[in-house]
Amino acid sequence: MDLARPRVETLLEGYRLGTDQGAVAFCAVNLVEGPDEQGTIRRIIVDTGHTGRRTDLDRALARRGLGRGDIDMVVCTHAHWDHVENIDIFDQARIVLHRNERRYLRSPHRNDHACPEWIGSVFERYDDRIREVEEGVQLLPGVEIVDAPGHSAGTIAVAVAGDDGAAVLTGDSIQNSTVARERRNALVFWSDELATQTIDKLVTIGDVIYPGHDLPFRIDANGKVEYVHDYRLTVTGVPAGEPGLKLDTSETFRQTIMPGIEEQRLPD
């Protein structure tokens, strides 16, 4: 492979699927490939998705001639279950996490349903492979960590300077295009004020936004969203016209802030 600059490729799309029985929680899983300082091609996975997508993640890698052992680094934009459950399959990779996110794992808030206590014990298993990072850390030439707190204590984004401009892989600092337009995070566990500041920051940085739970998109000068490609999703197991089945196609923005958020503190 001959790459002069890093590139981003989506392995698993993110989707903003929800039901009145709970969230489906399909986060985006992206692959960043680029040369290191010596010219060797390195591969980074940004978020791993949850175990319900593990087989599909293996298939997505295989279609590109890759396997689990070909991944050099896994970036966890934050430690919520739907973004990290597959870190165990990349047993050769370095795990990247913001230091504040790792601190938070020692004592997550009792109402934080996205970060139950067991997640801390998962990361403890990989203590010798974890690299704590913050704003400005360069993972590869042209691939840099951006602080993006608010959704969680230590959410990070990854900025990639590629041939087509700047791509920003946001995790849940920007869950979807509606969040980018409204400039408000849809689900806040740490700080609504910081979450709003983060959205403004990332939209300014990125020519293309790779959100946590939506397809990649651009925002033009008039604030109009343009998706990079069309939807690619098939819903199975639900017969059309099933009695009681409803489809809500509204795009009404709904923000949820965790109860007790004013109590949030990082442990010493």
TrEMBL record:
Residues 26-213 form the Metallo-beta-lactamase domain. One of its GO terms (molecular function) is hydrolase activity. SMART domains: Lactamase_B (SM00849). InterPro entries: MBL_superfamily_lactonases, Metallo-B-lactamas, RibonucZ/Hydroxyglut_hydro. The keyword Disulfide bond does not apply. The keyword Zinc applies. Its cofactor is Zn(2+). It holds the Pfam family Lactamase_B. Keywords: Hydrolase, Metal-binding, Zinc. Belongs to the metallo-beta-lactamase superfamily. PANTHER family: METALLO-HYDROLASE RV2300C-RELATED, QUORUM-QUENCHING LACTONASE YTNP-RELATED-RELATED. This is Glyoxylase-like metal-dependent hydrolase (Beta-lactamase superfamily II). The lineage of its organism: Bacteria, Bacillati, Actinomycetota, Actinomycetes, Propionibacteriales.
